[in-house]
Design brief:
Elements (H helix, E strand, L loop, with lengths): L1 H10 L31 E5 L7 E4 L12 E6 L4 E8 L2 E6 L7 E6 L3 E4 L12 E5 L2 E7 L5 E11 L5 E13 L2 E4 L11 E6 L2 E6 L12 E5 L1
Antiparallel strand pairs: 1-4, 1-7, 2-3, 4-5, 5-6, 8-9, 8-15, 9-10, 10-11, 11-12, 12-13, 13-14, 14-15
Length: about 220
Amino acid sequence: MKRIAYLAIVLAVTAVAGFGQLDGNPENMCRNGFFPRESESYSLAKVKAKRGARVYFYGDDDDCPNGKNCRTKSYLIAKNEVIVSREFGKWACVWYQPAKGSETVGWIALSNLDYVALPGERGPSAWIGKWTYYDSTIEIAASKTKDVYGVKGTAFWRGLGDNIHIGELDGTAKYANGKLNYGWADKGEYDCRATFNAVGRFMVVSDNLNCGGANVSFSGVYRRK
């Protein structure tokens, strides 16, 4: 049910050519369904806090994260690693991926984060391998052409009963400006295109919702197996 709910949120978004902050969303919105598509670049940060202290997530309802009753029950501790999509005042929208279990997404105070320096250029070691996000998989391999990688992927949307829709990636991605761009040569309105952002040991993927059957999306935060 969690996977279906996530995809329902993604599909509520209007597809746009670029994958920057999404048009029409309130500035204070910070949710997992939109996270992989709302930024052109992502950062890595570690939680800064005293030993044993809890650093709480804040929600995005109404006047949050600055308003009253915005603090959630979820929290992080010192040295937890998070992905940052963007900043909003004194807050950062972050994605925390534990070793096991599902992610937590929300606002964390900038004062509790130390950004981690990431390389400006990312070579083959940043991309090659098998990446997973729930039951979605993406395999990236080297090719004979510099800065071009082979990509194969599979994603699913599972409805009621035997209702299953499948998405596939089977082509090449080109490295440019610190990212891999899949389907860069395709010009059709409904051609599949996706962007891969390497963020430390994670890969943030955003697609244009044209990479498979209805309700299927590869968008998410992947980890390499």
